[in-house]
Amino acid sequence: MRLSDELRAWIGRARSRANDLEAAPGVERIGRVLRLGDGVAMVGGLPETRLEELLIFETGTLGLAIDLAEEEIGCILLGDAAGITAGSRVRGSGEVARAPVGQALLGRVVDAFGTPLDGGAPPSAEGLLPVERPAPGIIDRDRVQNPLASGLLVIDAMIPLGRGQRELIIGDRGTGKTAVAVDAIINQRTTEMICIYAAIGQKSSSVNNVIGAVRRWGAIERSLFVVGGPDSAPGLQWLTPYAACTMGEHFLAQGRDVLLVIDDLTKHAAVYRQLSLLLRRPPGREAYPGDVFYIHSRLLERAAKLSPQLGGGSLTALPIAETQAGNISAYVPTNLISITDGQIYLDPHLFYEDQKPAVNVGLSVSRVGGKTQAPPLNHLAESLRLEYQQFLELEVFTRFGTMVDERTRKIIEHGRRIRAVLAQPQFSPLRLGEQVALLLAAQEGILDPLPLDQVAVFRSRLAGWLAQRNPEALRMGESDAPLAGGSRARLIECLTDLARSISAGGG
C-alpha cells in the first residue's frame, strides 16, 4: 500500500510539471549533403534558405550559404569537415553569421566568431552583431579632417592620414608593409584609439610577432587581434575581415576612434577565388569571380567618420595588399587602389638599399592630404615633397657620371639628408614635436654640415636634447598653430647646438 501511495504522488508531480509546460508548434528544416570537398558543400532539400544564412551540420560544424540555386545550395564550411559525408543531415538556422562585440574582447586574440585563440577563457560579449552590415550613408558621415598620426615621419609629413580614411598599404612581399601598420598601431599608445589587427592566412609566427610587438611597445589593453590562420577553414578566413570590422563598429557607434588593419586583402581575394571555383562560378580575369571588386568595396566602405549626431566616432581602415615584382597594375591591386582614398607604396629597391620604411613618395598619395595634417607639420612639409622629388631626379641624372655644378651638388647633398631624416627604425614612432624639429632642421639646412652617417645620431639624440633644452617643443599638439616668431627661433637655435655638439663629438 505504501508503494501505491508513492506511485500516486509521483504521477501527481509529473502531471503538475506537464501542465506547466507550454506546447508550441515548431518547424525544423532538414536537408542533406549532396557533395563535399575542400571546404565547400552542396546541400539539397532546403529550398527556403536565404543568402548568407548559417547552416548547421549534424557534427555541429557551421556553414554559410553563399550560392542559391533551384535544386541545391552552395555552402562554405566555417569549421572542420571531419565527420561530414554525402548524405549527412543539415539543418537551417534562420540566422546570419554574427560576431561578438564588447569591451571584454580588447587585449584578446580571437577568431571571427570570438573563439579565443590565446588560451584564455571565452570573452563575455555585450552582444552579437551581423558580420555583414551596410556602410554608413552620406548623410551619416562627416568630413575626414582629424589627423591620424602614424609616428612615421615620411607618412605624416608627405602622405598624411585622417581618422575615417581608407589608405592602402601596397608592395612586394617582404618590403615592410606589416611593419608600417604595426608602427601605426604602436603610435596610438598615447591616444584613446582602439586598434584591431585582422590577419588572413598569415603564418602563426608572423601573427605572434605582431602581437608581441604591440604587447611590448604599444597599448595591448586597447588592441584586438582577429585571426583566420592558414590552418583555419577557408570560409572562416574569408569572414575574418568582416567580423573584425563589425567588432570595430561597436566602438564606432559609441563615438570612439578605431584603427582597423587588414593583413592582407590579396590573400582574402585568393581564398574567395578558391571558394568560387569550387562552387563552379564562372571565372573572370586572373580566374577571379566577377564580384571580387564588390567583396572588398562593401568591406572598406564601412570605414567612415560619423557625423556629430551619431557620436562623431571614426573607423580608419589600413588594408594591406601584396604585389608581384612591383606590378601595381594587377587585377586586385588596381581594384583596391580605386576603392581606397590613397596608397602607400613600398618600393623593393628602396628596401634593399636599406631605406626603411621603403616608401616610394612619387607613387604614394593620400587623397585626404593636407586637410587632415597637423598645422605645425603642414607648414613645414609644404615644400618638402617638391625638394625631395627634385633631388631624386637629379640623383638619377648624376649616376651617369655627369659633371655637376656647385648649386646642383648642394641640392643633392641637401636631398640626401632629407632622405636620411625620413629613414626610421621600426618600433620607434616619433611624437609630433620630434617630427616638427626634424623637418625644421632639414628645411633650415642645419643637417647639411653633418656627415651623412651622423644624421641618424642627430635623430636618436633629439628627444633627450629637446627635453632638456626646449621641452615646450615636445608638448606640441595637433591643433597648435605653425611655428612662428620666437618659438621658431628658439627651436632653430636648440637644433643648431645639437648639430654642433655632434660635429664636435660631444654629448
What does this structure look like?
There is one protein chain. The chain is of the alpha/beta class and 507 residues long. The protein folds into 3 domains: 30-96, Elongation Factor Tu (Ef-tu), domain 3, CATH 2.40.30; 99-373, 3-Layer(aba) Sandwich (Rossmann fold), CATH 3.40.50.300; 379-503, Up-down Bundle (Lysin). The chain is 38% helix and 19% strand. The strands form 4 sheets. Strands 8, 12, 13, 14, 15, 16, 17, 18 and 19 form a 9-stranded mixed beta sheet that branches. Strand 1 and strand 2 (40-44) form a beta hairpin. The longest helix has 19 residues, at 2-20. The relative contact order is 0.11.
How can the largest sheet be summarized?
A: 9 strands, mixed
CATH class of the largest domain: Alpha Beta
Q: What is the CA–CA distance across the termini?
A: 104 Å
Q: Helix amount, in percent?
A: 25-40%
Radius of gyration: 28 Å
Uncertain ranges: none
Please give the domain count: 3
Overall strand count:
19
Helical element count?
A: 16
Strand content: 15-25%
The chain-level structural class is alpha/beta
CATH superfamily of the largest domain: P-loop containing nucleotide triphosphate hydrolases
Q: Please tell me the CATH architecture of the largest domain by its name.
A: 3-Layer(aba) Sandwich
Q: Tell me, what's the shape?
A: elongated
- pLDDT averaged over residues: 89
The CATH topology of the largest domain is what?
A: Rossmann fold
